[in-house]
Every structure is written in structure tokens, then in C-alpha cells.
Amino acid sequence: MAIPKLIHFIFFGFTDFRLYHMLAVYSAYKVHNPDEIRIYNENEPVDNVYWNFIKTIPAVKIVFTKSPTEFRGIPLNSFQYRADILRLQLLRDHGGCYLDIDALSIKPFDFWDTDKSVVLGAESGVKHDQNVVSIISPKKLNYAGTITNAIMLSAPGSQFIVDWLEETANNLVGKGWAYHAVCLPRGMLREKPEYLDDALVFNTAAFIPFTFKDFEIFGNDDDYLSKLQNSYTAHLWETIWDANYLSKIEVRNMMTTDTVYNRQWRYCINALLCGKSTADWIARKFESGQFTDIVKLPIECAASDIDTKTLYKFAQSLEKTGNMSASGTVYAAIMERDDIDTLTRLECENKVNVGIRM
């Protein structure tokens, strides 16, 4: 049975829905062109510009889901363990692709129509081979440290997924952190080699091109950016990186600072800024004087490096909200640019004048 072009994300809502979560969803939509993206959520974010935006993506469906609190009588006290159970249940019942909410997409999967029932990737233990994606042979599998459960694809009812879920109950207690999630599948593949007859198992370069100890993605090396294009996804290690790195990267930083991370996924920000839901949100905040995060953009855009085309679309989106003060600020900034033609400059001047009169 083929793997359906269905993508599953889990965001229970126990933490903030941040910019990089939005990047995960939007990049999956643009890169993989799925039939549907389902986001399983218990506590929906309120007044969150990133959440509002992903809800406007045509393929996205928010599925209200209570997080499981126990599995086979075993309490699930962390939201990570709850998500571990749910993801396997989703793949067992529906098939498709499961992506962690901090897994960003880079290039399209070219194995949706594989005759295998499950597609997995090593998380550690197999050399990255200079970011060259390859399928792990049974012999090399012995050197795989762990198998990632952050990015997985399967057909509905895949025997490996069914057995993995069954075995999880015996491996939740008395083992190391996340043993059931990344060590158990590796052990199953080693102990029962026939699983490999119905599985594709890639090296780390496919889904996990860097570890949580590697920070090149926050640098700006062209060669590293080029090598990253070989991978299908990149896992951002949210639990470890959020506080010191990911939570500090906001919209303006992504648009104006060149890093590998920002350059790779900047196109997502263009879509965010030009979206109606974003303009509505910014206009409300602008009107009430809450100049925080991306609301600062209309004020600071004159000095920013946001390209003029995006800035103009941004201004138009703000104008459609009826907030001529916010849109006029952006139009005024565009007038200061050197790369606009005379007609555009006159249009911007007219918009600014309208805003002043109002």
C-alpha cells in the first residue's frame, strides 16, 4: 500500500507557538505539496500571529485532540512522551508522514510511491558522509546509534509501526530518556532483519543533517548552506535550542540578518508578511500601540533590508485592513528606496497623503 501524501504535526499547545513552528508547517506545505496537513492540537493559541497564519494555508486542518495521559496503564507525564505515542498511532491508522513541529523541510520527498511500507532515518551513529544522503545497508545498521522518530513516513498498518507501538509499552519505564522513541526501533531492526525487506532506512544526512552540538546553521557559510540542500529536512532540537537560540530569532532578524537558517527559510517570512491574517493582526496591535515583535516592522522598515517587492505587498496588506497609519508608514519607507520606479513612487506618495488626511 502506498504512503498517502498526508502530513501529521502534533502541537498540543502546552508551550508557545513560535516562529520556527510556523516555518515547519509552511515549509512542509511548499516543499512537499501534500494533499493535507493535519495539526493535532488540544489548547489552541490565542492572538498568535504565527498560528493565525498557518490556519490560512489551504492544506492545513486543525484536529482537536486530547493528549493521551496514559498508555497501557502507564502514566505519560511529559508532553514529549504523549506525542511519541500519538505519532505512532496516527501512522498506524492513517499512514503518511509524521514531522516534529520543529522539523523544517528543505527538499521534496522522492519516495512517496515507494513499495516499502515505512521510511526511517538514523539520528546518530552513522557518519554524515559530508551530507550525502544514502540508504543504510543491513551491515551499516549495526553502527547506527539511534533512529529518529522526528521524521517518519509509513503506509497505513505498516507492520513495523504496529510492532513498534506494541513494544513501546514494555520500554517506557526503567529505561533512559526517550529509549522507546529512538533506541527501540534500532534494536527492532537489528534483531529482526526481515523488517528491512519492507523498509527504507536512510543515514543521518537525510533527515538529521546536524546534531544539537552543531551550530553551523546559525553561521553564514555558503558551503554549509549548499550541503544542506542534499537533506530532506532539518531537525531544530527545540528542547535544547529554544531558550538560547530559536526563541530569539524573530521576523525582522530573519529578514535582515544573513545566516544559513535565515537564508534557507526566509521565503516563508515573505508569505507571512503578505498574508491577510498577519496584516489584520499587525493593524490591531499597531492601533493599540503594542509595538512588539513583528509589529515593529512598519515603524522600522525604512532602515531594514526587506526587499522592496515584499515591503510593497506588506503595505498593501496593511492598507486592506483599513489602518492607513500603519500602511502609510510602510509606503513612506518605500519612497526612500532607490529601486522603485517613478509611478510606484507617486502611488506611495498618494497613499501617504491619504493617511495624513485621515
Which helices and strands occur, and which strands form pairs?
Blueprint: E1 6-10, H1 19-32, E2 36-41, H2 49-54, E3 60-64, E4 70-71, E5 74-75, H3 79-94, E6 96-99, E7 103-105, E8 118-124, H4 138-141, E9 146-147, E10 151-154, H5 159-168, H6 179-191, E11 199-202, H7 204-207, H8 222-228, E12 233-235, H9 238-241, H10 251-256, H11 260-273, H12 276-288, H13 297-300, H14 308-320, H15 324-335, H16 342-357
Helix pairs in contact: 3-5, 12-14, 14-15, 15-16
What is the H/E string?
EHEHEEEHEEEHEEHHEHHEHHHHHHHH
What is the CATH level 1 assignment of the largest domain?
Alpha Beta
Radius of gyration over all CA atoms, rounded: 23 Å
Q: What proportion of the residues is helical, as a percent range?
A: 40-55%
Number of helices: 16
Distance between the termini: 62 Å
- Overall shape: it is elongated
What composes the largest sheet? 8 strands, mixed
Low-confidence stretches: none
Give the helix/strand class: alpha/beta
Question: Total number of β-strand segments?
Answer: 12
The CATH topology of the largest domain: Spore Coat Polysaccharide Biosynthesis Protein SpsA, Chain A
Query: Which architecture name of the largest domain does CATH use?
Result: Alpha-Beta Complex
Mean pLDDT: 86
Question: Could you describe the 3D structure shown?
Answer:
44% of the residues lie in helices and 13% in strands. With 358 residues, it is of the alpha/beta class. It has two domains: 6-207, Spore Coat Polysaccharide Biosynthesis Protein SpsA, Chain A (Alpha-Beta Complex), CATH 3.90.550.20; 274-357. Strands 1, 2, 3, 6, 8, 9, 10 and 11 form an eight-stranded mixed beta sheet that branches. The protein has a two-stranded antiparallel sheet with strand order 4-5. Helix 3 (79-94) runs antiparallel to helix 5 (159-168), helix 12 (276-288) packs across helix 14 (308-320) and helix 14 (308-320) packs antiparallel against helix 15. The longest helix has 16 residues, at 79-94.
